Structure formats: C-alpha cells, structure tokens
Amino acid sequence: MYVEETGYYALSSDSSMDTFGDIYEDDFNPMNPFENLLSQDYRSCSYEDFKFIVYLHTGTKYILVVTTSSPNITGNFSILTSGSTNITLNPYTHVLTNCFIGQKCQFYKKSIGIILDDILRDEIRSNMTLSDQTILVKSNAVLTMIMFVGGLINSILSIITFQSKDLRQVGCGIYLLASSITSFLTISMLAVKFWFVVVTQMNLSIRVSVLRDGCVSIEPFLKLCFYVDAWLNACVAVERAILVLKGIKFNKQNSQRIARWIILILPFSCLAQTQCLAASFHKSTSTCELFANVSNLTENMLPDADITTMIVQDKTRIPQVFEPEATTIQTSTASLSTISACINMTTPAGRAPTIGWDFEGNINDRFLIYNGTDGNKSTYALGRTSCRKCLNLTSSLNQSVYINATPYIDLRNISFSVEAWIKPTIVTDGIEHVILAQCGSLYGYSCMRTSIGNLGSMSFLFRSDTQTGLHNVSINVWSHLAYVYNKTAGTMSLYLNGTLDTSGGSHGPYYGSPTFFQFGNIDMIGSIYYDGCIDDIFFYPFARTASEIAATFALG
C-alpha cells in the first residue's frame, strides 16, 4: 500500500469469510508475524470484518495481509479505503534471502521424520519457567533424565567390558564396542536435544542463529547416532549368522578387517539420510511448495501449528500472498469519524502483549488464559468510545478483581511492562490507589504494584523499592499510563500519556514469589482501592520502548 498524503486512513474489508487483517511497515516476514507489525486487527462493534484507523506516511511501503480465522477457506473479499486521498494497492511478492526459523507457519516439511519439536511444541508455555510448565513437559523432563542416567551407566559399563582384546578377536566384539560408544552419544544427544527444545521454546527471545544452528546440528547428529547404532546391531546379527554357517572355517582376521571398514563407512552412509530440509507455504491456497532441490520428496504437513521449527534456504521464493483474481478493490467516501466510532478493541503498537484485559462486559483475558473473577460485584460503564466498555470500580464498595488463573506469572527473573487506560474519579485524597498488583508478601522487594500514589502521581513499587512520578494524573478524563521495569538496567520508567514522566535507576531485583494478580486493591495491605474506570490493561514480559508506548497512546 502507498499513500500520496500523510494522515489518518480507514481500511476495512467486506466479505462472507470473517476476514482478519494485519498491517506491516516496509516488509512482511511470513515466518515471524510480529516483525514490522504496525497495527493488528480492530474488530467492529457489529462483528463485521476488520476495520483499521491508522496513521500512514508518504514514501513508506505498507503491507496489508488479509487472512481468515480458519484454514482452507476461500472466497471473494473487498478492501474499502477512506482518507484524504486514495490508497494505491499493488500485489505483493517476497523473496527470502536468509536462513531463519519462524513461529507461525501454516505448513512445514522435514525429511527426517517426527522430532521432539513436533511432540512438545504445543505443550511448552512460552516466557515461563520450568516449574510453571504443564505436567506433560515436567514428566518428560524427569523421564529424560532417568533415561540419560540409566543409559550413561549402561554405556560406560559396556565400553569397559569390550576394552578386553579377547572380546575383540572377531568383528562382533568391535561392532559391540562401537555400539556402546554410539549408545552413549545417542542418550547424551537425546538429553541435549530435549533441553534445547524446552529452553528455546520457553524463551522466545533466543537469537535466531542459535535456533537455526541447533536444528541443523543437534537433530541430524541425534538421528545419525540412532541409525548407526541400529546398523551396528544388524551387523552383529549378520556376523553371527555367518559364523553359524561357516563353523570352523570362519576367518577371524577377515571379520576384524570388514568390521573396521564398516564402522568407518557407516556414519557417512547414515548421514546422507538425516539432512534437515524444508518447504515454503502458500497461505492463500493452502498448498505447500517444495524447494527446487527437494521437489521429489514427500511432504509432511501439519496445519495450524502454533510454534513450528522451519529452515528456509537462501534465495527461496515465497508465493504471492495477494491474489488479484479473487479480490476486488473499492474506494469508499465514508468519513473517518463514522468508521472510528465502531472500534471496540485496540491492539498496542509494537511488540504484542502476552495478556490483555479489555473489560468488554467481562474480565476475560483476550487470549482466554488469564481470566478474572469479580471481587465484589464490579460494574461496567461507557468506555473511551461509544461502543467501548470499561471496568468501573468504586472504592467505597471495596470493589476489586482477582486473576487466579495459573500458572502464575513469575516476575523475579524478567523485565516487564504494564499499560493501562484509566479514568479515575479520586487521586489526591492522600491514599494510594492500586491499578494492578502481584503481592505475595510484605517483606522487602516482594510486593509489586502499579498505582496512583497518595499525592496523585504515578507510583511503581516493589514494596520498599519505589519510583514516583512527577505529574499528577487527571481526574474524570482518560489517561494512558505505562510502567516499565528493566531488570538488566535496574530501572523503573513511568510514562504518562505517551511521554516519559520520570525514570530512575538502582531498582530491583524483584523477589516476590509468583501469585495471583489483583486489580483495584491489595487485600494484604488493606483499603487502597482504585476509584473510577479502567478500559484496558496489558502485560508484557519485557521492557517496552518509549516509541512503542508513544505509538500505543497515539492509537487512542
């Protein structure tokens, strides 16, 4: 998309397929849908197709990606635009020139069979510690370590046994010694592979080069050890059969010579069968397009994988995402104000949050994981726009909200950010008013809360560790508040309406044990209730940047 004049534009779709949309700036990476993401799908009050109100600049290329909520759905759709001038829409093609691993890929292919990524990827919870993982992941970790210890002991004893020259007078003994070594390597690589998969999928911030190198090295080497060990056992069986047939005519020297040659050649033969290959996907037609050098192999397609390991070779062309023959482009003269009144869910600019509470008549997390429970019959009022709602808390009624969903978020070892749109009715009454808190203890740096301080300015606390804002929060008007803790730098930064209010160092680390979140109060402390409306609360397991916060505030 290209615009002739910088300004606000409205884009929407009209179809029978319930379409969703995303806008990217400069480039679109189909394997990493969060890279260059400008704005995510805004759903209208009438639950029609997507609608965007977005600020576009001249001289900048924007990519509009339209998709559906379910795979294998085709049909016609229209793109409607509104603004000061027309928007030019052109088909988009993309050429990948780097080798990397993506997250959301509709189809993928490997020639090395089922791997640990396939088995575990849907069970591993991102940005959480091992103690907060599912029972399946924990039990697999225990079984893997039991297998590793047992296999290690067995392999060491076997190697010691076959060190005797008397047992290596024939090829069978040489095969078994080599098999003991490969068994040791196999069980060791299995443990390494398991923890590589778990750690890299728990921590999505690990560098792409590490993921790529792990795929092209650990998995093939693990398969190589397994195949070599299986062939060595087959060689033992073949030699024993030959010994039975030849009897006393069996030649021990030839047996030893053949065994040494087989052990030398076998790894190279097996290595040819363990290459990590891949294929591109065509999202609009739900087909898998194989790379030129693997076109004769059979695909293994897994639809809608949440986290997929994918290797993409250099200069591989991704098929067109935009289908001209199935698309009509229309221009609408609808006013910007008419369309903007229908937006009832906002998406923050920049990197996406992991938890978001919209308070559209409920206390559900928009990702349906960390849903809340009402502490004392909270109500909902008119939100920032005519079709929005907000959580209305009244301090005199002791109203608050609890987020008891598990696993609890562990704040001790991460940077994190909290953003909220609020419309308070009381701020300067000499009492602190809590917005969001996680407080399991009142000792030291163990009670985290984001709030309005007793003097009316923003306040970010780890119990006895406090950062206070410089400017008061206004009453009876909507304000955007952002609290950012950078663990590495040891800083707390407070942003009021998209602008840095204050920032301080020598903060943290946070020591509080994981527990539930609470909106509007901290029961352990007492009556520090919030009074007023809250329209959005977003939690990020990383430190947001000033530009991301400013852009989110600009979205309104």
Automatic annotation (TrEMBL):
Keywords from the UniProt entry: Disulfide bond, Membrane, Signal, Transmembrane, Transmembrane helix
Keyword Transmembrane helix among record annotations: yes
Pfam family membership, one: Laminin_G_3
Taxonomic superkingdom: Eukaryota
Residue ranges constituting the LamG-like jellyroll fold domain according to the UniProt record: 414-547
Entry annotated with the keyword Metal-binding: no
Chain segments annotated as transmembrane: 141-162, 174-196, 260-281
InterPro entries: ConA-like_dom_sf, LamG-like
Name of the molecule in the record: LamG-like jellyroll fold domain-containing protein
Native source organism of the sequence: Adineta steineri
Lineage: Eukaryota, Metazoa, Spiralia, Gnathifera, Rotifera
